[in-house]
Amino acid sequence: MNHGQRHDANPDPILSVRDLRVQIGRKGPQILHGVSLDILPGETYGLVGESGSGKSVTGLSIMGLLKRPLNVSTGTIHYQDQNLLKLGPRARRRLRGDLIAMIFQEPMTALNPVASIGTQIAEMFVIHRGMDWTTARQRAVEALDSVQVPSPEERARAYPHQLSGGMRQRVMIAIALACRPDLLIADEPTTALDVTVQAGVLKLIDELCRAEGTAVLLVSHDLGVIANMCQRVGVMDRGRLIEEQDTAALFANPLHPYTRGLLAARPRLGSRVEGGRKRLTELDEIVPQGARGHDSPTLVTPREVRARATGAPA
Amino acid sequence: MMGFVLRRLLQMIPTILAVVLIIFFIFSVVPGSFLTSLMSEGRNMTNADVLAQMNAQFGLDDPIPVRLWNYVSGLLQFDLGISYRTREPVTSVLAPRLWPSIQLAIAAMTFAAAVGIPLGFMAALRPGSLFDSLTMVTAVSGLSVPEFWLGLLLMYVFALQLGWLPSFGYQENSLRHLILPAVALGVSPMALLARTTRAGVLDVMNADFVRTARAKGVSEPRLVRAHITRNVLVLVLTTMGLQIGSLMGQAIVIEKLFSWPGIGSLLVDSVSVRDIPVVQGAVLVIVLWFLVINMLVDIAYALIDPRIKVA
Predict the structure, then answer these.
(1) What's the pTM?
(2) What is the distance between the alpha carbons of residues B116 and B87, in angstroms, rounded to a whole number?
(3) Could A114 and B234 be called an inter-chain contact, meaning their C-beta atoms sit closer than 8 Å?
(4) I need a surface site. Which of A279, B68, B236, B244 has the fewest CB within 10 A?
(5) ipTM (interface predicted TM)
(6) Architecture of domain A6-99+179-310 in this structure
(7) Does B304 sit within 8 Å of A98, measured CB to CB?
(8) Tell me: the pLDDT tens digits for B217-275?
C-alpha cells in the first residue's frame, strides 16, 4: 500500500504551515505552540500523537473549522501562494470541500440524518460546480460507484441510518473527493470503524487519492495505519511537532524519546508470549522531565538524543 | 399510510373508553345534580312527584351500571344523550360550538408558531447577544403571565384605549374578533416554542453533520436553510403538537373571558348547572381533538424525518 518516494520529483509543497499557534480565546492557554509542516503534492503525510496532542486541531485549523473559543493567534498556512489565514470567509469557504476536503472520525453522526445520501453528495457539485440538482444527483451516483458502494442508484436514495458505519464512511469519502481536491485531511478516518472494514476503507482512500494525485494529511493515533499509508510522518506531543521523518526511518530509528515511547506503547501481537508478562509502557516514564514542564521539547537532533541516553551533556 | 391512519384510529378506542369511564364515574359521585342546581336557583322543586318524574325522565333513578351501559351503547351510535338544560340532543348542543373552538386553537397556534419559531431561530444564531437575552426574558414572561390577566390587558389596550379591535364576542368569519383571544391564548405556546426552537437550533448547530456541511463549503445561509431547519423542525413539531392538542382544553378561561362560544365556555356553563351529559360530551370533544392532533403530528414526523417509518 506504500506509495514509495514519488514526492521527490516535485519538491514544492502544496500546503505549507508555518509557526501555527492556536489558543483558547484571546489570553487563554495555547493549544498549538508553533507547528510547521509541509505537505508535498500527492504524498500521504501521517500525523501521530496521543489524544490531545493537537493533531485534530492542526487539521481543523487548515480547514478553517476551529470552533470558538479556539482561534489561530499567529502563523501562516500557505496554499498555492496564498495565506489561507488572510483570506476572507467567502474565499475560504470556496476552497473548502473543493480544493481542501476533510473526512472525520465519526461516520455515524457526520451525515445529515434527514437528507438522502445522493443529495448530500450532489450538494458538492451544486455548490462548487454550479450544476443543477438533476445532473448533480446523477454525478452523485457515479461518485458512490467510485467508492465501491454496491447498487449505488439504490443507495443514493437511502438515508444515512439505513447504511452501516463502513458504508457511511465511504459516502463521506465520496463527498470529500467529489470535487477532486488537492488535499484530503483525514482525521482518524477508521478509528470508529469495525476492524474488519478498516483496511478496506484505508485501501480505498489510498487508491482514490493515488489515482487523482490527491495529497493526504492522515491524522491517526494508530501507528500500524500510519506505517502502511504514509511516506512521511510527523509526531506531535502537547501542541508541538517534535519529530518528522520518512516513515521507514521513523520506525527503524525514532529520534525523539517520546516517539520511542509511542512506538513501545504499541501493543504487538505475540509480544506477551515472547517476553512473558510485561507492564505496558507508559509514556510518562519515557518522556524526559523537561518535556512535561514548561520548556517542552522542540525538534531534537540525534546527537541530543544520544547525549541524553548516555547522560553526557549535549 | 392509510393502514397507519386506520391503526392509529383503532388505537384511540381504548383511550376514549377510559376517558368515558373516568368522567362517567366522576360525575356519578360528585355531590349535586341538575335538579338540586335548579332548586338553588330558587325554583320550587320540592314536590316529590315532580322530582321522581324528572329522575325517571332522565334515567337518573337507574343503578349506575345500567346508566353506564345506556350511555356507552348510546355513544356507539354517536348518541351523547340529552342535555338536561335545553332538552336537545348533546350532539346538536356541541356542534355549533366546535368550529369557533377549532378556529381559536388554530389561530392561537398560528400566532405562536409564526412568532415563536423565528424568534427562537434568531436568538440561537446569536447566542448571548442582547437580542437573545431579550427574547428569552420575553419567553419566560410569556410562560409565567396568567392568560386571563393578559387577556384583560389586551382588551384594555386594544379595545378600550385604542379601539382597534372588538373587546369580546364572536362573529362568523370575523378575523377582527379572533385576534385578541387568539393572541391571549397563543402567548404561552409562543414562548414555549421560542425556547424549544432556540435550544433545538443550538443543539443541532453543534452536531457533527453541521461540521461536515461546513467542511463541504456550504454557505451559512444554506447551512441554516438546508441542514439545520429540517432537523430542528423534528424537535419543534413535538412541542407544537402537544401544544395545539391541549389548546382546546386551555382555552376554557380565554373563551369565558372573551365570551367566545366554543367548547370551553360551554363546558364552564354546563358544569355550573350540572348539565352532566353536555359536560361529558364537551370533555370527550377536547380529548378527541388531542388524539387527532397527535395522530396528525405523527404523520408529519414521518414526512419530515426519514428515520421514522409509517408502515
Answers:
(1) 0.75
(2) 44
(3) yes
(4) A279
(5) 0.79
(6) 3-Layer(aba) Sandwich (3.40)
(7) no
(8) 999 889 988 889 888 988 888 888 888 888 888 888 888 888 888 888 888 888 887 78
